[in-house]
Predict the structure.
Amino acid sequence: MMNAATSVREPYTPKEAVERLRHGDLGAWPVVGGLIAIAIVFGSLNEHFLSPENLTNLALQMAATGTISLGIIMVLLLGEIDLSAGSVSGLCAVIMAILSERLHWNPLLAILVALVAGALIGSLHGLMFTRLRMPSFVVTLAGLIGWQGLLLYLLGSGGIINLPFDGFVAKLSDTWLPSWAAWAVTAVLVAVYAASGLIGRRRRIAAELPVTAAWWLATKVGGLAVVLAGAVLVMSADRGVPLLLVIFGTLVVALDLVLRHTTFGRWMYAVGGNVEAARRAGISVTRIRVLAFVLSSVLAAFGGILSASRLSAVNQGSGGSDILLMAIAAAVIGGTSLFGGRGRTYAALLGILVIQSITNGMYLLSVDSSVRYMVTAAVLALAVAIDSLARRGSAT
């Protein structure tokens, strides 16, 4: 039996990547190709689409739903689903608003309590799933309905709580990094990525395991540096890099490091890949599953707070509409497998970028919402089809 700790591999070499492509495992290339196609199509149809102002707005629009999508990925890695993420995001945002505006708590303390509420909700979902053996679909579907009802109850007849535009929460979405800070963050991200790759190589060499070529790692680090530098240059031509994007990017990088370089992360992939094998390897499957649901709800709560920051208010529609569907679609489109055991946190970034780009481009072209939904559905269906083909090719 393969040790569960070896279920997470380092990035593949170019030769191995070609072999994976031959078997139908396309990785993130379809998403990258899709983004290029979206940029070409909408950029040619509307000259404003690729303008610094619009791309900066696109970065702002990504953060809240992308953060919720990060939580969805935690559960999808186990082959489960969380349908309550949208309702949890709205409920926790309402809790934060009530504490900070009606009870006049310190905003930071109100945010902390809202995140704790998210953790408690996730714990409840996890325990219902693991102890009562209820399907995750049913548990979180009940949560979707129940937490939405609690949100409406807490808001009362008013139905809305406004947040002051000059308050701490609203300022999260109206803060822009100065040029020097944006370049400093870029340098830190590139350095962290490079250090992560080097540490991974040294650990694998010490364990006498195959490693990627040094030039391949250098190429990827250089590519990341070019992409980030380009993004900073574009957004600096408008208002600058938004703080919301930095927060979202930090979450993506931090969670990716946790999943790839910690025991907990390796156990997550192991449980998602083969529950029985993980259990026989001595992994506490119940604990991992509960923690996954806790992470999902906490990230949903934080995404709800970021959404409230953009709107400077919470209302009866908070966490509703198509937020949940877009968060799940972003995770799947970005490359997270619905069958468990495969996916990276960068899937949330890539997936939400695809969805928001399509949405943004269609708004600029004044395309009806019905067409936008159909296009998003087609992209989602294509992503799932690619995932299914990759799984079939891997099994073969």
Q: What stands out?
A: The CA atoms of residues 98 and 161 lie 8 Å apart.
